[in-house]
Amino acid sequence: MVEIVTDWRDLPERLRGAAVAIGAFDGVHRGHKAVIAQARAAADRLGAPLAMVSFDPHPRRWFQPEAAPFRLMTTAQMARALAPLGVDRLYLLPFDAAMAAMIDEAFAREVLADGLGIVHAAIGFDFTYGRGRTGSPEGLRRHGERLGFGVTLVDRIDDPDGLKLSSSGVREALKAGDMPRAAAILGRPFAIEGQVIHGDKRGRTIGVPTANVPMDDYMRPAYGVYATRTRLPDGRVIDGVANLGVRPMFEIDQPLLEVWLFDFDGDLYGQTVETELVAFLRGEMAFDSLGALKVQIETDAAAARAVLAS
Q1: Cis peptide before 59 (omega within 30 of 0)
Q2: Distance CA 212, CA 202 (A)
Q3: Fewest CB atoms within 10 A around its CB: which of 28, 130, 189, 241?
Q4: In angstroms, rounded to a whole number, what is the distance separating the alpha carbons of residues 179 and 274?
């Protein structure tokens, strides 16, 4: 299990001295994994723990509070994605006014050297940091030489299939409803995790009870119907079909993920589930009656079962 640390100040010695990968790492995609692999190589060489340094909230949310939702994962999802990579610790540092105002040299000295006591840092070729994003990869290497930690710069990873291995590449694929491309960049299906809330329960009236999960700050993939797999709190994974969007027939205010779990009968209200969007089946549609909606849902369910079986 990855240990999450939420500050860099006044840490006990057992939480210092790691080799770290630094960045936002939203999505922990294949490009990020290349940076983490270099940090892991340094950790093995130096006999140090392996850690990742990221920020909460995401710097983009701090500087652009009115920006559209854009996140690809929650903190819990990030920790789970890091565990198989051998990461021992996630430094999830508060990105606040003090952090935003910190110049690059102060970040290297106060946060990385004095606070976290890092022994090595691995960073991507496009990593920037410090007030005004003035800190560069080469600049961090120079700071590290002076402050006592090494720095590995990781070049851009070119995918043989021409995929854009970046968080923006994932977002572009999701907006297009291209779930195979998003999964190829991430190295796993894109998934939405959240607490099941009470809905209007219309689905129950037509024999289609759904687990409803708010989108919160997740980026909005293409609105429509998806074949899904949902991981329950007890570890079971249940196939299903889901509508993601605002349901034109009912005009809900905020987009919602509504998942019909096949062959499942249980109470999930208040519990946290994670739903993989495996395949995009169709866009959102409006219906003139609940009967017409029920017929379409049955068609969608058959399509989802076929996709998931294959």
Answers
A1: no
A2: 12
A3: 189
A4: 16
AA identity, residue 105: E
Strand pairing category for 89-94 and 224-231: unpaired
Structural tokens at position 184: 């190829």
What pLDDT was estimated at residue 34? 95
Contacts of 64 (CB under 8 A, 6+ apart): none
10-residue mean pLDDT profile of the chain (310 residues): values are 96 98 95 96 98 93 90 96 97 94 96 98 92 92 97 86 89 97 97 90 69 95 97 97 80 84 94 98 86 89 96
The first and second tokens of residue 147, run together, are: 């402050």
Q: Where are the alpha helices (DSSP H) in the chain?
A: 30-46, 59-63, 75-82, 97-101, 104-106, 137-147, 167-175, 179-186, 202-205, 290-309
Q: Quote the CA–CA distance of 131 and 100 in Å, as a whole number.
A: 6
Report cis status (omega within 30 of 0) of the bond before 57. Answer: yes
Which pLDDT score is estimated for 202?
Answer: 61
The vertex-155 CA angle with 154 and 159, nearest 5°, equals 120
The pTM score is 0.92
Confidence (pLDDT) at 30: 94
Q: Which residues contact 143 (CB under 8 A, 6 or more apart)?
A: 104, 105, 108, 109
CB under 8 Å to 47, separation ≥6 — which residues? none
List the alpha helices (DSSP H) in 179-242. 179-186, 202-205
Q: What's the rounded Cα separation, in Å, for the pair 299 and 222?
A: 20
Task: Write the secondary structure of 45-59 as one string of H (helix), E (strand) and C (coil).
Answer: HHCCCEEEEEEECCH
CB 273 within 8 A of CB 230: yes
